[in-house]
Amino acid sequence: MRRVSGLLMLGVGALVACSRPAQPPAGRWIGNYDSPAVMVDARLEIGRDGQVRASAPDLLDIGQVTDEERTAMHARLADDLAQNWDEAEPKAMDFDGRIFRKPGGVAPQMEWDPHAKVMKLIFYFGTMHSIRIAMHAVGDFAADPWAR
Q1: Which of 45, 47, 23, 29 is nearest to 95 (CA)?
Q2: Do the Cβ atoms of 128 and 139 come closer than 8 Å?
């Protein structure tokens, strides 16, 4: 009888531990994506309360541009991001320990690898495919997120 009650207590403890919702990682991340067709500059902030702020200005259908033009585009996106960051409202997200979704939503918005501590922001282009932007943890947001 003692063995059965011990196993029962262990099972109840496991259920209680599993029933706690996963806590999203608090912090700040920056990332960018640059290809001949798409350029994205992204900021992400997750508060200790789990609220998520994100902003990701983009340029589409860039085509062939010179290095000087590409540098100017980077500066434009960085400026847009800095100028509009205050308008990025904190939002609640469903988080299962790895995937962030809009409340009640299906499409993943971000992916978190808790073991590697890697965050990816998923950027959707409407009818185009999506891309995963690798985000880098930062203490504070830099004026030039393209510089590393």
Answers
A1: 23
A2: no
Distance CA 70, CA 15 (A): 53
- pLDDT tens per residue, range 102-142: 999 999 999 999 999 999 999 987 776 899 999 999 999 87
Please give the Cα distance from 62 to 92 (Å, whole number).
Answer: 33
Which stretches of the chain drop beneath a pLDDT of 70? 1-20, 128, 143-144, 146-148
Rounded CA separation 81/79 (Å)? 5
Do the beta carbons of residue 137 and residue 27 sit within 8 Å?
yes
**What would the two tokens of residue 5 be?**
């009650």
Distance (Å, rounded) from C-alpha 50 to C-alpha 131? 24
With CA atoms as reference, report the closest residue to 49 among 110, 95, 92. 92
Q: How far is the C-alpha of 56 from the C-alpha of 81, rounded, in Å?
A: 7
Provide the pLDDT for residue 123: 92
Cα 49 from Cα 59, distance rounded (Å): 32
